[in-house]
Write a structure and sequence with these properties.
The structure is a single chain. The chain is built from five helices and three strands. Strands 1-2-3 form a three-stranded mixed beta sheet. By secondary structure, it is α+β, with helices and mostly antiparallel strands. It folds into two domains: about 35 residues; about 60 residues, YefM-like domain (YefM-like fold), CATH 3.40.1620.10.
Length: about 120
Amino acid sequence: MLVLSALPLAIATVELALQLADRLRRMNGASHVCYTAGVPREITQRELRNNSGTIMRELDHGESFVVTRNGAPVGELSPVRRRQFVQAATVLAVFASSAPIDQARFRADVDRVLDQSILPRA
């Protein structure tokens, strides 16, 4: 019985160790996590070619990369921001409590900032 009850703890310990190893790998030699927050990881062109599957999975998890060739940055890989659907009822509820818009004042503000003439600008 004791062996079976210790199994979930052992599995959790292994999972935690794997997460820690992955986190250390993503830190890329930095001494502390806060030094790597928001900084894209640099990868070589060869690493991108050879590990494209792993890199794509990391993109799915929000990781960003700077691709280098001969040590010089040549491009960035970053995840596409997913659009989030919002129910119409939620949007209407949010705008229901907002201040009413004075149409004439709004139009005057827009006309002051934008040139809405039908004539070409050049």
